[in-house]
User: What shape does this take?
Amino acid sequence: FFIVTSSFVRESGVEVNRPSAANVAAQKDAGIFVAITSANDIYIDKRQIDAERVQATLEHLLLEQPEASLVIQADEHAYNGTVVKVMDAAKGAGVKNIALAAEKRG
Assistant: This one.
């Protein structure tokens, strides 16, 4: 996975306070967006999804966009465990490129 700056990422439609990072890369195109709120609610392309349904939802989206990359926009107060579960589900679904969105520091 890699960290991308949010200035080049289409917003997920869910309000999250992304953490900042000094070393981020720009990503101009991503097909699937996952937002994780401070309450650990998971949204995929603006729809709230139960944690148990993340992999199946991503598998369905990959049928339409097989080469889509995934950007996770996690609130800085979201549990690491929730982020790891989403990343694991994405890998299980067959997502090849996973990025974490962050605000560019300084």
Summary: The CA atoms of residues 4 and 26 lie 5 Å apart. The two ends are 23 Å apart (CA to CA). The first strand starts at residue 2 and ends at 5. The helical segments are 54-64, 80-93.
